[in-house]
Amino acid sequence: MINRNRKLMAWPIVVVALLGTTFTACKKNSEYYAYENTVKEFDGTVLQYLQAQPANTFDSLLLVLNRLPEIKDSLENSNITLFAPTNASFEAAIKNLNILRKDQGKTPLYLTDCNLDSLELMTWRYVIRGSRTTDAYVPFADGALFISLKNSYPMHIKYNKLNASGFVQGGPQSIIYSDPKNSIFEKYWQRANTNAVNIKAKNGVINILAPLHDYGFNEFVSRVNQ
Q1: Residue 119: helix, strand or coil by DSSP?
Q2: Please, is 105 exposed, middle or buried when counting C-beta atoms within 10 Å of its C-beta (0-12, 13-18, 19+)?
Q3: In whole angstroms, what is the distance from residue 49 CA to residue 139 CA?
Q4: CATH for 2-21+40-213, options being 3.40.630.30, 1.10.10.10, 2.30.180.10, 1.10.10.60
Q5: What value does the CA radius of gyration of the chain take, rounded to a whole number of Å?
Q6: What's the CA gap between 21 and 78, in Å, rounded?
Q7: What is the pLDDT along the chain (226 residues), one digit of tens a residue?
Q8: From the CB of residue 32, how many other CB atoms can be counted at a distance below 10 Å?
Q9: Handedness of CA 47, 49, 50, 55 (dihedral sign)
Q10: Cα(204)–Cα(131) distance, rounded to whole angstroms?
């Protein structure tokens, strides 16, 4: 494990300011919401941006943030880049959890019930130190490691320009956001794509993760199933 960690740190790592943040949780019954970005600049904080979006977009994330005051505060007062999971990401995680719990003869769990330490550990991975748009990632052809605001956890960010209308890389900008799991071997990484990028708030930049992403980067079930 020590050698693996040393190799991992050979990737480019970008470290910026430390900040504090908080989380909230999911509703038991909420619809999947296909997020469509219509605003590139928001006159408010990162937290206020989440709160201003339509119902069934970030309700689950806001619920988790309400349970995690430190993370919530960082979205209001710290200089950050947020990779925001929508309701669909939480619903998929909760669904998988409760399928397993049913098989085990256990009662269902929801975001309001989940262990706070586990929620906090997983949620910090979506909050990166410093405010950056995709311009910061373009120079790294293979992507680079960026550090979470707390716990100094390395997350891998790779810029991806999609193709469109017959032009190579002529389409919209995208980011592949990955949890390397402290491994240099990409087959172990858990990846998430973005639906929208470069939404600028007063204290940071918001990138919206695609709904197919499972909150927790495939660790939610194992961490909260007690």
Answers
A1: helix
A2: exposed
A3: 28
A4: 2.30.180.10
A5: 17
A6: 8
A7: 444 444 454 455 444 333 333 333 333 333 233 444 555 899 999 999 999 999 999 999 999 999 999 999 999 999 999 999 999 999 999 999 999 999 999 999 999 999 999 999 999 999 999 999 999 999 999 999 999 999 999 999 999 876 444 444 445 789 999 999 999 999 999 999 999 999 999 999 999 999 999 999 999 999 999 8
A8: 12
A9: positive
A10: 5
- How many CA atoms within 13 Å lie on the side-chain side of 165? 3
Please provide residue 77's backbone torsions phi and psi, each rounded to the nearest 5 degrees: -125, -10
Our measurement of the distance from residue 51's CA atom to the centroid of its chain's CA atoms, rounded to an integer in Å, reads: 16
Joined together, the tokens standing for residue 197 give 């990028």
A 10 A CB-CB count for 10 gives: 9
- What pTM value is reported for the model? 0.81
Longest dimension (CA), the chain: 54
**Concatenated DSSP letters of 176-191:** EEEE-TT-S-GGG-EE
